[in-house]
Amino acid sequence: MGKDIQLLDNGVEEYQQTLKYNKKIMSLKSYGIILCFDAYVPKAKDMIDNRFRINLLHDSSEPYYAFGITVLQLTFKFATQKYISLRENNVTFKRGGDSYMEIRTEGSKEYSHMGGPEMRSNPIGQTGVHINVVIYAEEFFYNISINGGDFIHYHHRFPPWAVNHVMIDGDIKDVKFEEDSSQCQKIINNSIKFELPPNMLEVKPLTDMETIVITGKISKFPINVTFLNGAIERHNRSLKKHFSYSLRPT
């Protein structure tokens, strides 16, 4: 090197990105366990955005509001600067501080009126802990349980059967969905299993030239036959198409 040239060793800070965990939901459910997973909430010093989100989605793998619907979104916010005790970078939060949980439903422009978000206390009391999250669906509410705690209730804005994708992102690691979690398997095995009503049948997607044949005896009253695509019932806000017709005795 020449006398007027010097090599400078300037450290470059590498930008850390939060992770995303995706899962496609294959079966439609009106009730029962919609989602179960285990995960690790990192220590305060390892957090990037001080939050993570759970997104239950309809016809989208990302919570993008220009299309699709975010059926249920849970945001867990951690205010790491407000703490009661700090030991080895684990934070125990003040109740009622800036640490909170937000629950919302968001739709596209055609389905924008879903009601405002609901704010709750953050049920995850500290960072640097393992968590188990279970989201149940009942007739009118989602019941959300963190580490087996009391249910957090959220009224349906959109039916649970609309959920066909899950995306979890933010300051959360080692997410294991139910198929890879022994704890979730135990919970699922001890819970109520969803069953279609007796007047409904699930059929696999049809290919060219395949047909559906319905046999039976028509009673004195008309019989309505409805074909649903990605749905369990007709719903005014559903993006899925359906058609129906009536059979009448002659």
Question: What is the name of the CATH topology of the domain at 19-189?
Answer: Jelly Rolls
Class per helix and strand makeup: mainly beta
What's the end-to-end separation, in Å? 100 Å
Give the number of helices: 1
Low-confidence stretches: none
Number of strands: 15
Mean pLDDT across all amino acids: 81
Q: Beta-strand percentage?
A: 35-45%
Give the helices and strands as they follow along the chain. EEEEEEEEEEEEEHEE
Largest β sheet strand count, sense and barrel closure:
6 strands, antiparallel
Helix content: under 10%
Q: What would CATH call the class of the domain at 19-189?
A: Mainly Beta
- Rg calc: 24 Å
Shape: elongated
CATH architecture classification of the domain at 19-189? Sandwich
* Strand order in the largest sheet: 1-12-3-4-7-8
What are the SSEs and their pairings?
Elements: E1 19-24, E2 32-41, E3 51-58, E4 69-77, E5 83-87, E6 90-93, E7 100-106, E8 118-121, E9 129-137, E10 141-146, E11 152-155, E12 165-170, E13 173-177, H1 182-189, E14 223-228, E15 242-247
Antiparallel strand pairs: 1-12, 2-9, 2-13, 3-4, 3-12, 4-7, 5-6, 7-8, 9-10, 10-11, 14-15
